Amino acid sequence: MIYILKFGASFILPPGIFFVLFALIAVWAWRREEKRIAGAILAVTFVFYLLSTSIVGDALLRGLESQYTPSANPAGDVIVVLGGGATKDTPDVDGTGSLCAGPASRLLTAARLWRRLHIPVLLSGGQVYEDSGAEAWIGRRVLMGLGVPAEDILMETESLNTTQNAIYTAAMLREKGFSRPVLVTSAFHMPRSVLCFAKQGIEVVPYPADFQANRQARDFHYSRLRPQSDALSASAVVLQERLRTLVTVLFE
Q1: Cβ atoms 123, 78 nearer than 8 A
Q2: Is the pLDDT score of 1 beyond 80?
Q3: Cα distance between residue 184 and residue 199, in whole Å
Q4: HEC string for the chain
Q5: pLDDT in tens, 48-87
């Protein structure tokens, strides 16, 4: 019964309610003999509906996340962690400003790797917008709260995107004499990140974190056909990554 209630509720809340409204608009257009317009509305609505289901969202994410697998025995001389968003003035345990969910997961992975490898951690990420957080500085505070000593933390604080992460970090790696960086970022973000570093002549050891989709497809259940904002967001992230990778290959 609970699945039936969730399935029904998903069509009276966003994004499901919009698909219902668009379908009604398509029916109205069809009755007014605007059949081509009705067909176009239904086609676009159906595509967006599919992208809003966890079946499609998970499948798209899995395609990106499965390209790299964390090594059971990673080896390197520095751990590089890429930023991905932070708030500026939110309260935190030991200060003000917090990393967003994905970057926080990356940082936790880096802290655990540090405990195993005992090599420096290089945080890459600046303050992207005036009202967003200074990612590397916030990450430094969190790492120290997790027990990583200040002398083991390096920061690159100027980058505003993945391309700049690679450019500025590559310069620091050469300056400090590091030659085998263990790269930590979200699994969906790893393929483009590896490409960006390769374009700077840096071969990284990929260590993806923040996995969001199961490695194996889940068994089918009708509840996975209900539209969900999280699934639509996942689909959008994948499409964005694919587009940005294409731009990186062609123009950067």
Answers
A1: no
A2: no
A3: 18
A4: CHHHHHHHHCCCCCCHHHHHHHHHHHHHHHHCCCHHHHHHHHHHHHHHHHHCCHHHHHHHHHHHHCCCCCCCCCCCCEEEEECCCEEEEEEECCEEEEECHHHHHHHHHHHHHHHHHCCCEEEECCCCCCCECCHHHHHHHHHHHCCCCHHHEEEECCCCCHHHHHHHHHHHHHHHCCCCEEEEEEHHHHHHHHHHHHHCCCCCEEEEECCCCCCCCCCCCHHHHCCCHHHHHHHHHHHHHHHHHHHHHHHC
A5: 999 999 999 999 999 999 999 999 999 999 999 999 999 9
Give the chain's domains with CATH numbers. Answer: 2-65+231-251 (no CATH), 78-209 (3.40.50.620)
Cis preceding-peptide flag for 15 (omega within 30 of 0):
yes
Whose structure tokens read 């290959």? 249
| pTM (two decimals) | 0.94
